[in-house]
Amino acid sequence: MPAHLDSFTHPLRYLAKWLLVSLLIAALAGTASALFLLSLDAATAYRENHPGIIWLLPLAGFAVGWVYLRWGSTVEAGNNLLIDEIHDPKSVVPLRMAPLVLAGTVISHLFGASVGREGTAVQMGGTLADQLTNALKLQTQDRRILLMAGISAGFASVFGTPLAGAIFGLEVLVIGRLRHDAIFPCVAAAILADQVGLAWGVHHTHYAVAAVPALTAWTIVAVAVAGIVFGLAGRLFAGATHRLSAFLKRHVAYAPLRPLIGGAVIAGAVWAVGTQRYVGLGIPVIVEAFAQPLPAWDALGKLAFTVVSLGTGFKGGEVTPLFYIGATLGNALAPLLHLPFPLLAGVGFVAVFAGAANTPLASTVMALELFGPAIGPYAAMGCVVAYLCSGHAGIYKAQRGAKAPFTRDRREDRAGDR
């Protein structure tokens, strides 16, 4: 084929190929997320109507831990397994990851663990997408893109944020670097998966930031100060979760005993504080953070319950608890910084996630999708500052390129000078 024709038809072939693949990924990931969200709603409703069920949380944790020990040892790494497979492809992710994490997360929510949903959706999206590798006879490079698109589709469909989902799949792999060759598949899969979820009747929570103040020197400085606190909160969350998990693995050899211990601690803590405010997703409290002032200890309570839940081995995600921590922390900081609490709740919602996951771009775009364009400058400032202050020791251990800002650039500059 003449060169000038090939230069025109090659992009068309690329677009046609990945549009078709993205449709398949979206159908799988969007349907799985819809099933997950509907199951989660049912489990949450049952727990709220039967609060005494939390006393069975230790047994539920033991059961899930035993099932993973018996059948899920090769997929227990979850999100980190997907990220590792993108960096160093070895073998197709076992299909059993999807049903195991789905069932494990719903059980965690049913009995009262404090976990999220992003990890489950991402794992299902990536796993189901990877099953297409052999069917479509994809090569290694295409398989990397396939997995990234699956991650984007899972994230987008579970939160109803297609643009943030697309960027998350591109941004989460390597700190400070995006894979441009995967932009179209990630965008297409994320948008289509969100539409598939909506077609199944999934509804996402809406948060209202009533009034966004005009930009002034003080509001920018105040949000930057809050961003430092949000970044430190994300760093504390990630570090505490990893340290607790490592401690228990060293001292409790039999894996199912770890969530049993964690479940007992959580159930006892719920009894001690006299409220289930800090278990489950915590969506009602997040909504409250945008509507009224909340006590300053809500963020600390959710952080503690979530660290114990995830650190002891309960299945689920980290992101929704991070939204809770960020929104309630922003709510508490607002009067100190003389900012409207809905504004700072919205910035905190995404900025703590940005710091803990090292994804400032996806987090900023998520704010635009959830709260509207007016919050954009504040969300960008909060997310970037939180990211810079988080230490880059995030919730995903398989992330690569975690270096101090600008270190590599200075080395390259010195090399160039020589």
Characterise this structure:
- This protein has two domains: about 10-200, Clc chloride channel (Orthogonal Bundle), CATH 1.10.3080.10; about 215-390, Clc chloride channel (Orthogonal Bundle).
- About 70% of the residues lie in helices and about 0% in strands.
- It is built from 18 helices and no strands.
- It has helices at about 5-50, 55-70, 80-85, 95-110, 120-130, 130-135, 140-160, 160-170, 185-200, 215-250, 255-275, 285-290, 295-310, 320-335, 340-355, 360-370, 375-390, 405-415.
- The protein is globular and about 75 Å long.
- The model is unreliable at about 405-418 (pLDDT under 50).
Layout of secondary structure:
Layout lengths: L2 H47 L7 H15 L7 H9 L9 H15 L6 H13 L1 H4 L4 H20 L2 H10 L11 H17 L17 H35 L5 H17 L9 H7 L7 H15 L7 H19 L3 H17 L2 H12 L4 H14 L17 H11 L1
InterPro entries: Cl-channel_core, ClC, ClC-type_chloride_channel
Protein name: Voltage-gated chloride channel protein
GO cellular component, one term: membrane
